[in-house]
Amino acid sequence: MKQKQVISRYKREMLWSLAVYAVLLTGSIKFGRPMPDGAARTVMLASPMLGFVGMIWAIARHVGGIDEYQRKFMLETWAIAAALTAATTFSYGFLETAGYPKISMFSVWMIMCGSWGVVCAARWATQR
Fold it and tell me: What angle do CA 108, 70, 21 make, to 5 degrees?
């Protein structure tokens, strides 16, 4: 029963954080981009990070609430995904010095999520 409560709480907190992120992102794009340079514009453009911080909080609470095996498995998966992300982005940094186009820092998060998906799938397939 406890695990179901942990998962339910995680989903609620994550969905709430994603909603805050989406609202703030929409507002920052609509109102922040056309603003003149300055502190107010910087705050407006960075405001979606409040939702992102909520996501980090939800993940941290979830990790703290799951059993030891799940926690170990999850943290190992994230560690391998982080290593793959570091290798990929570091390698591309060398390619940029060779003339490849510069990519946005937003792409690092996409690479991290993709790496996490690949690692999850590989670990799931090898444990069956």
Answer: 40
**Helices and strands (H and E) in the chain: how many:** 5, 0
Locus of tokens 């793959």:
84
46: tokens are: 């960075």
Q: What gap in Å lies between CA 48 and CA 109, rounded to an integer?
A: 15
pTM summary value: 0.77
pLDDT in tens, 57-95: 999 999 999 999 999 999 999 999 999 999 999 999 999
Give the per-residue pLDDT at 1.
Answer: 55
Cα angle 82-83-87, degrees, rounded to a multiple of 5: 115
Tokens in use for 119?
Answer: 């690692």
Of the candidates 28, 20, 88, 112, the one whose C-alpha atom is nearest the C-alpha of residue 58 is 20
